[in-house]
Amino acid sequence: MEKARNIVVAVCTLAIAAFLWMQAGPQFMKMQAGAVTLQPGEELGQAQGQYVVYDAAYPVASCPEEYYTGDQSRVRTNGYVVYDAERKVFLYIVETDQSDGRYANLMYYLNLMADLRAEKDMSPAQVRGTLEPMDRAAIDRAVRTLEDSDVLDTYVAYQDSEAYYEVYFGDSYGQVMADMCQEISGGIGQAEWYRIDSGVINGVMTSDILICVMAAGLSLLIAVGSLISLFTGGKGSAQMPDSVGVMERFRAEQRVWVEDWCRYCRKRADRSAYLAVAIWLAVFLGIGILAKTPAERIFTFSLPLGVLLGEGTAVLLVWLQKSQSKPGKMLKRIEKRLRKAFPAPGALEAYAEDYLKAGKEWEFQERKKSSMIIGRLGDHCWSAFYGNGFVTLVDAEKLARVEPADTVGSVRSGKVRVGYESHSAKFYYEGTPAWEDGDKVFGFETRAGRDAFLALAAKKGAEGVKVREN
Predict the structure, then answer these.
(1) Given 180, 201, 222, which residue is the final one in a domain?
(2) Long-range contacts of range 25-29, CB-CB < 8 Å, 24 or more positions apart?
(3) Is 28 part of any domain?
(4) In this predicted model, what pLDDT tens digit does every residue of 76-124 receive, in sequence order?
(5) CATH number at residue 445
(6) What is the pTM for the complete model shown?
(7) Does some domain include residue 8?
(8) Do 80 and 153 belong together in one domain?
(9) Which end of the chain is more exposed for a tag (fewer CB within 10 A), N or C?
(10) Can you tell me the distance from the alpha carbon of 108 to that of 463, in angstroms, rounded to the nearest whole number?
(11) Where in the sequence is the domain holding 161, given as residue range(s)?
């Protein structure tokens, strides 16, 4: 069953890794290679589809490109018509509203008088993204934006006035603007337009690319780990022959329930891990759908982010449980506590002999979702071992009575009260007053588990021991 589960996990995570790599892998390779700079004389069409870095020196017009979903008063991205003085063409650059300050400043400076412009920082705004062709509708929209630009209005207003013309277009920047306006005064005849979406490579934002690749990488690591587990896990414990020493036989019996409990805890962690992945995916896919996110971005952002957080949570849950559910460590912890309880030479061996002699007939056990108790009633010592490695030992030769105890209460958690209850068997040694809390306690999660233990203790019929059952 465990091998089948590992195979299913490996296949699913490999499929997820492959799908996410298909969404953003080529873009990631371009991002790793770095943006290329357009060479002097290179036409924009020659760099189509490439990840480029471009210096936008002359943004001359702008318009809102995209609004936030459900709020048409908030602009998400702005589009800028930029003039390329070297190639004598226009291109369209899209930048987020929070990051377009440099473009807005340059566009404002280009409308100032030349003397004022000389005092401003006119260094170009740098953009990185994929150079993509624009469709006819987008071109028409960019042309309308350019026709409404302030620079063109200023040129038309002052082109016949030598004095004002010199004031606004007398410097090198003004001359470029004048040449541009003169060129398009008879109409904008540029047939092919290209756009650069800042921080976008082939339609995928760089932040989304990183999320996709990290999610794909984590999925691949999980797949590899699951495949390795097919060949390294599932080794059973060797049976201990009766001819070996008493301590070896005692350890072998302890190992049986310890390994079973650790296996159960790991399976429970696995179920929690699967649930974590499903919840994170449902949350982010639901948010994406409710926010009317485009399908392309759901596959490059919502889905990989849900996978990344879900698988990250799953790995953490499984790793934490696996680090706690190591049979070897738990057995060492149990033996350490037993040696502390029986420090005298030969005492631990005598206890182990008494435990083994009691056998399955006098064994009790309660295993619930998050707790485990198992033990035996020997002739000299009654033992209880817990799933967290703790041990409680009762000296049967000093024992006078066993009493049931129930605790019911509630605690405040935020604005609500959460109820709790616990059930235990308290052991009183000879001479211990009845009003005290008992010398030893076996704790159970359910009343039925505690009552079953009390019935077994009464059946044991230890001499001089009174067992009160409910």
Answers:
(1) 201
(2) 25/212, 25/213, 25/216, 26/202, 27/201, 27/202, 27/204, 27/209, 28/209, 28/210, 28/212, 28/213
(3) no
(4) 889 999 999 999 999 999 998 877 788 989 999 998 898 998 889 999 9
(5) 2.30.29
(6) 0.80
(7) no
(8) yes
(9) N
(10) 100
(11) 50-201
